[in-house]
Amino acid sequence: MGKRLVLGWILFFYVALLINILVFKNIPALHMGQVTLKFGGTQSGTPNYVPFKTILPYLAGERGALIAVINVIGNIVLLMPVGFLIPFFSRNMNLLKMVGLAILFCGSIEAIQAFMKIGIFDIDDVILNGSGMVLGYGCFSIYPMVWNYFKTRKMILLVCIGVFTAVLFYAAFKFLYWGPSDDMRPDRLLRNNKVSSVTDENVKLSSDLCNGTGGTGEIISIEGAAFTIRKRDGSKEEIKLSESTEIKNSKGRVASSVLKPGIHVTVVTSNSEEMIAAVVIICGS
């Protein structure tokens, strides 16, 4: 009884957290050095009722590997704890029931966003979130077998999990939230004599926010509050700017006037349907 009570409170608070994230989009911006990425999701635009319409471009790499991982893997992993915990309270739960519950729960989240006009309905979010719940149920199904296997070694297992979790959290906060230390910048390294020399090539690479990848593509034309890029696969795409669009280079935030034909950029969109940029990162120094 005590175990189920504890798990019940964990499930309650986790669902409350999910509602705060998925419905109200209350997600802090992620800082990676001088780049700020906002993951609040699309809050306006045209609803998507076509399955895999937004998933397939991510899997094809059209939005970049980082954005694909956040949108696809992130939406799946986020719901896995729910699918894992629910069977503890419903002993007659099976795969078919979990699929139905996943569709109902995740569909309700999308419907609430649309009804309250704080987001749009996206069937692909239902698919990804629902898949996470089903995978979580799969983990619950194999949990007894895994636990019995490690039962005699559970203390070692718990210690390893604790150490791994601590290292993971430290790395996440150190390198993703706080970003690289200012002391590691090439000019600081020279000033503090922490290295004997910094080559021109090292300085060039450190100042390229696209890490030498060339970004999403090259700007080929600019017209008003929009510009067209030629992507690495040769296709063209028009990107629109808004008042909230952040434009950044290696020195920080800059005005839109620095965008010129011939410049390579990485684009993070806030609205994949209308291709409105949330962040435009200028490659190179």
Q: How would you portray this structure in words?
A:
With 285 residues, the protein is of the alpha+beta class. The protein is built from 9 helices and 9 strands. It has a 7-stranded mixed sheet, with no helix packed on it. The protein has a two-stranded antiparallel sheet with strand order 1-2.
Q: Give the spatial strand order of the biggest sheet.
A: 5-4-3-8-9-6-7
Measured by DSSP, the beta-strand proportion falls in 15-25%
Mean pLDDT: 76
Distance between the termini: 61 Å
Number of E strands: 9
Number of continuous helical runs: 9
SSE arrangement, N to C? HEEHHHHHHHHEEEEEEE
Short description:
With 285 residues, the protein is an alpha+beta fold. The chain has helices at residues 2-23, 55-59, 65-77, 80-85, 95-116, 123-150, 154-177, 186-191, 200-206; strands at residues 30-32, 35-37, 217-223, 226-231, 236-240, 246-249, 252-253, 264-271, 276-282. It is elongated.
